[in-house]
Amino acid sequence: MTPSPADLFRQTFAAEPAVVTAAPGRVNLIGEHTDYSALPVLPFAIDRRTAVAAAPLDAPRIEAVSEAFPVPASFRPGTPPAELLEPWHRYLAAAVSLLEPPPGAGARLAITSQLPPASGLSSSSALMVALVAALNAAWGLALTPEAIADLAARTERLAGAETGGMDQQVIAFARAGHLLRIDFLPPARRHIPVPPGWAFVVASSGQPAPKGGAAREAYNQRVVGTRVAAALLADMLGVGLEGTPLLGHVAGIDAAPVLVEELPERAAPRGIARSLGIPLEWLTALSSGAALDPDAPVPVRPFARHVLSEADRVDAACRAVESADLAALGRLLDASHASLRDDYRCSTPALDAVVAALRKAGAAGARLTGAGFGGFAVAACESGRESALVEAAIAAAGGPAFPVTPSDGALLE
Ligand code: NG1
To answer: N or C, which end of the chain has less CB nearby within 10 Å?
Structure first.
């Protein structure tokens, strides 16, 4: 049983919390690895949450405990995240560094979660949204919900992964019974009702999807590969660039999907920046300050093919949901998985196996969800079939697997 955050706070600090916030995890139904290209996504918030109990402290210190991690945190506001050893301490420090605590103030925090960590269900983003909301209340910062979601996204980038911002928006603004289509260029959100008789199941591949180390590098390599592709396509199409090139800048143009096939299989950022006469930083700069080797070739054509085709699948998925066509949605989920496996190269044999088991057990379609390289898969099915899918997934990969219900976000107004 997960303890309540208020109980954990009382047990740890022998005091009452001043505020308790909670934020849900999310499942991305489709639109994978599109958000950092400013292309649409279609996630929903789930019925499992991370909660934070907080109280201001009359000393410049952050003291935090988490039910999920054994080592408590204790550091001064302003400590650079990289100086802390525990990854979750770095996330806290990154969030605190973006906020302005009242002079001389600190905070005590107790964190509990119903979300499996390193799963692709956004446990880290749920923590960041709940945390920024808790510190906002504890320190009286008067941040708007938009500002809280934005700060939570910037925190993730400081902590290392050059994320696009899907997770924080859906965690903040989702609505029960609905999917949330998020557009970035220009920014827009649309709640789409889930047709009656549809259900969703998530299932672990049995492999963690960690945020640090090699997985973060693999994620950031994809960010850079898509920027190289966007720069080359913009050049072929005569689209002027004013900063970081994104596939979203060229996605609506008819010729783009044809020109994708003319892109190089791989290319090194430095050579491309030089030949196009653009600053290398436009291709390689990451918010965390981490650097990828600019002379190491990254895949270009397959990454662009995935991202541009995935953006089209998001549009088609919205139409399938709006016309209550579960079979059509299922085909799109399957096609998304194949594209992530073959072109984006972020699936694993364990993810492929759990996806196959979900389909065999009667899913309309299934795919990996989140960044991949391990973590969870999501399946859509007719209501009533959830337990068959859950059993098949547990038999194939060991679980956990469970049905998820589209739920309200943390900051819905
Ligand atoms: P996960 O791995 O579920 O946290 C990550 C990014 C998203 C998005 C997906 C891939 C973070 C916090 N989130 O999700 O923004 O890019 O990968 O679609 O890094």
So the answer is: N
Element housing 303 (H / E): helix 301-322
Determine whether 405 is exposed, middle or buried from the number of CB atoms within 10 Å of its CB (0-12, 13-18, 19+). Answer: middle
- What is the C-alpha separation between 177 and 101, in angstroms, rounded? 37
Residue 175 banded pLDDT, cuts 50, 70, 90: very high
Q: Which of 35, 150, 167, 343 is catalytic?
A: 167
If DSSP codes are grouped into helix, strand and coil, which group holds residue 79?
coil
With a cut of 70, say whether residue 412 has pLDDT above it: no
Q: What is the pLDDT of residues 43-99, one digit of tens each?
A: 999 999 999 999 999 999 999 999 999 999 999 999 999 899 998 999 999 999 999
Angle between helices 87-98 and 123-138 (to 10 degrees): 40
371 Cβ below 6 A of ligand 1: yes
- Pocket probe for ligand 1: among 34, 48, 122, the residue whose CB has the most ligand atoms within 8 Å is 122
Sheet of strand 365-368: strand arrangement: 365-368, 376-382, 198-204, 401-404
Does this model's pTM top 0.90? My answer is yes
Whether 206 lines ligand 1, by a CB cut-off of 6 Å, is no
pLDDT of residue 288: 77
Backbone phi, psi, residue 320, to 5°: -65, -40
C-alpha dihedral sign at 80, 82, 85, 86: positive
pLDDT of residue 413: 56
Q: Please state, in angstroms and rounded to a whole number, the distance separating the CA atoms of residues 8 and 5.
A: 5
Q: How far apart are CA 11 and CA 34, in angstroms?
A: 43
Burial 130-164 (b: 16+ CB within 10 A, else e): bbbbbbbbbbebebebeebbbbbbbbbbbbbbbbb
167 as an active site residue: the answer is yes
